[in-house]
Amino acid sequence: DLYNFRRIGPDTKVFGVVGNPVGHSKSPHMFNAAFKSVGFDGIYLPLLVDSLPNFLKTYSSTDFVGYSVTIPHKMAALECSEEVDPIAKAIEAVNCLVKRPSDGKLAGYNFDYVGAIEAIEEGLQEGGSIAPRSPLADKVFVVIGAGGAGKALAYGGKAKGAKVVIANRTLASAVDLASNVRGKAISLDELDDFAPEEGMILVNTTSVGMKPKIAETPISKKALKNYALVFDAVYTPKLTRLLKEAQETGAVIVYGTEMLANQAFRQYEKFTGLPAPKELMKEVLSKSTQ
Ligand code: ATR
After folding, report:
1. Which CATH class is domain 5-110+259-289?
2. Can you tell me the distance from the alpha carbon of 111 to that of 213, in angstroms, rounded to the nearest whole number?
3. What are the pLDDT digits (tens) for 221-259?
4. Which residue among 26, 74, 99, 151 is the active-site one?
5. CA of 146 to the centre of ligand 1 (A)
6. What CATH number should be reported for the domain whose range is 113-254?
7. Which residues form the SDH C-terminal domain (predicted)?
8. Which of 4, 42, 217, 230 could form a disulfide with 241 if both were Cys (CB 3.0 to 4.6 A apart)?
C-alpha cells in the first residue's frame, strides 16, 4: 500500500527522493503513509537520477515541489539551490530541496545534521536529566567518512562543542573537512590505535557494513572499548556489525534509522507546513527495515 493512486488529481503535490541507488530507500514508505494519515494531497516517489542538474532542468515546470536528496547528489544539490539555508551552506551539503510557492525558486536545506545529533544526544542522556549544555561538549567525537553525511556530522560535533576527529580512507578529504571544523584528521589505518581518552563518541558515515556486505566494519572490535557511544548512519541492516560489536563492548548504540526518521520529520514539515506524524513514520520505518 505504498501509493494511493485514487487521490491523484490536478492539485496533488509531487515529491520524491533523488538518488543513485534509490531502490532501497524507505522514504517513500514513510512519506506516503504520513500524507495518507492526515489526508494531505501529495505523493512521494523514488527517483533514480544520474545527473541532478539535468533532472531539475527537465522537470522544472512540473508539479514536483520538493525533493529529498541522497547519495551521491548532496553536494550537487547545494550547487543547484537558488537559496541556501545557512546551516546547509556551512556544511556544504544539501539533503532537502523545496520549491518556494512565492517564486518557484529552489531552497536547499540540510537536516542530516540535526537528525543525527539529536539522536546521539538522546543516546547520551538516556536515564539522565537534560543538561543545559550538550552532552557532546568537550568529548572527542570521531567521524568516519568525509562525504556529505560526514560533513554534516562533523559540523554537528563542532556546533556542540566536541573535539572533532575525521578518519577517512582518502586522507586529503579528511584534512579538508578537519580544517573546516577546526578538528584533527587521521587515516583509517590510524583509527584502531587512536585512543587519546576513554568515553569517546564514534560515528560511521561511510557505507561500510551496508547490505549486502554486512560482514564489513570500519574499526576493530578491540578499539571500540574506548567509546561510550557508537552511531552508525548505515541502516540496512539496522543492527550493523559495528553496532553489534559496540553493544557487546558495552557502548550505547544509536541506530541509523533514528537519524533517518529525525531528518524525515523536518523534511515533512518543510514540504507540507504540517507537524509530522512522528510515531506513524517511525512505525512504518521500523516495519520496513527489519
Ligand atoms: P554520503 O553523502 O552518504 O556521505 P559520499 O559523499 O559518497 O556519501 O561519501 C562516502 C564516504 O564514505 C567517503 O568518505 C568515502 O571515503 P573516500 O573519501 O575515501 O572515498 C567513504 N567510503 C565509501 N566506501 C568506503 C569503503 N569501502 N571503505 C572506506 N571508506 C569508504
Report:
1. alpha beta
2. 27
3. 999 999 999 999 999 999 999 999 999 999 999 999 999
4. 74
5. 7
6. 3.40.50.720
7. 256-285
8. 217
How far apart are the CA of 61 and the centre of ligand 1, in A? 34
Which residues have C-beta atoms less than 6 Å from ligand 1?
71-72, 74, 145-150, 168-170, 173, 205-208
Q: How many helices (H) and strands (E) does the chain have?
A: 10, 12
pLDDT in tens, 121-173: 999 986 566 667 899 999 999 999 999 899 999 999 999 999 999 999 999 99
- Looking at the DSSP bridge assignments, the partners of residue 66 are 15, 98
Gap from CA of 170 to ligand 1 centroid (Å): 9
List Cα–Cα distances, 8 to 11, 24, 40, 219, 277, in angstroms: 8, 24, 11, 48, 21
- Mean pLDDT over 48-53 rounds to 97
**Ligand 1, closest atom to CA 144?**
14
In three-state secondary structure terms, 275 is coil
Nearest partner of 152 among 119, 184, 112, 103, judged by Cα: 112
Cis peptide before 28 (omega within 30 of 0): no
The three cell numbers locating residue 60: 522544472
Question: Domain map of the chain by residue range?
Answer: 5-110+259-289, 113-254
- Whether 244 sits among the annotated catalytic residues: the reply is no
pTM over 0.90: yes
Q: Which ligand 1 atom lies nearest to the CA of residue 173?
A: 18
282 phi, psi to nearest 5 deg: -65, -40
